[in-house]
Design brief:
This protein has an 8-stranded mixed sheet with strand order 3-2-1-4-5-6-7-8, with helices on both faces. The chain folds into 2 domains: 13-174, Rossmann fold, CATH 3.40.50; 184-276, ProC C-terminal domain-like fold (Orthogonal Bundle). It has helices at 20-31, 48-58, 66-71, 82-90, 111-118, 150-161, 174-182, 184-201, 206-227, 231-237, 244-254, 257-277, and strands at 13-16, 40-43, 61-62, 75-78, 101-104, 124-128, 138-144, 164-168. The protein has 280 residues and is an alpha/beta fold. Helix 4 links the parallel strand 4 (75-78) and strand 5.
Length: 280
């Protein structure tokens, strides 16, 4: 196997869960040639059809025996729905061992609670990718507990770099990241919906409105990335006094657009904390 980055993931990775984040990770791992397909094992609770679909698409192995996944994996990825996590992890007591790296993408569930449910003090890394992982552009927050080694942290970082960018943070910041970048794509999609609808209402063909809206969003994002200017400055540069942009912005200000976005992110952050609290 080639390794253009002078780095390889050693051992075998097992996935408990087979949803969209897992599929994105499988795709990224294989595209980046971090592991061969035969070193990837997936499982879910009862959807064998989904497992077969992923096995056919990526050449990975699958089983519906989660204990087998744990026993045969060096790195265990937890991608279980939060409501199922307690039962599923408590059923793995005595199977997960102290040297096994556990990586969680379960929203709202702390590393200490995962330790408690598994009944072992093992290295645990909690992450929060977003749905842009499907196209390799996730913004992923990553927090490690005290048992994680530097090498394990590097391996986890490399795994999530296969689906986007990675930011190491304190665990208490993950709720904020959930509200900002975890839920963030939905806010952008909501804005795009509105812009497309406005274009169509004003008389554009719907497909034309879609293409113009998407290119506008892409262009604005690249301006921010490439110029590294503050968004407020770029906004001011495109806003001529008495012009069309100013007229539009005045309407957004009347609707308290910025306050609404801020409130949405803070509420999503609060909801993430609420979800975590209900499992404690």
């Amino acid at each position: 196997m080639s390794n253009q980055n002078n780095f390889s993931i050693e051992g075998r990775i097992g996935f408990l869960g087979a949803g969209s984040i897992v599929e994105a990770m499988l795709s990224g791992i294989l595209k980046k040639e971090l592991l061969a397909p035969e070193h990837l094992l997936i499982s879910n609770r009862n959807n064998r059809e989904r497992l077969q679909q992923l096995a056919d698409a990526y050449g990975v192995q699958y089983t519906q025996d989660k204990r087998e996944v744990v026993r045969s994996s060096d790195i265990l990825i937890l991608a279980i729905k939060p409501k199922d996590a307690a039962e599923a992890l408590q059923d793995l007591r005595g199977v997960v061992h102290a040297d096994q790296l556990v990586i969680s993408v379960i929203a709202g569930v702390s590393t200490s609670l995962i330790e408690e449910w598994l009944g072992v003090n093992c290295p645990i890394i909690r992450t929060m990718p977003n749905t842009s992982s499907a196209v390799g552009l996730s913004a992923t927050g990553l927090a490690a507990n005290q048992f994680v080694t530097e090498e394990q942290l590097r391996q986890a970082t490399r795994l999530f770099e296969a689906i986007g960018t990675v930011y190491e943070v304190a665990e208490e910041e993950l709720d904020i990241i959930t509200g900002l970048s975890g839920s963030g794509p939905a806010y952008i999609y909501y804005l795009v919906e509105a812009m497309m609808a406005a274009g169509a209402t004003a008389g554009l063909d719907r497909e034309m409105a879609r293409q113009l809206t998407l290119q506008t969003v892409i262009g604005a994002a690249h301006m921010l990335l490439d110029t590294r200017e503050e968004p407020a400055l770029l906004r001011q540069q495109v806003t001529s006094p008495g012009g069309t942009t100013q007229a539009g912005l005045e309407v957004l200000e009347a609707y308290q657009f910025q306050q609404g976005v801020t409130a949405a992110i803070l509420r999503a952050t609060e909801r993430s904390r609420e979800m975590g609290a209900q499992y404690r």
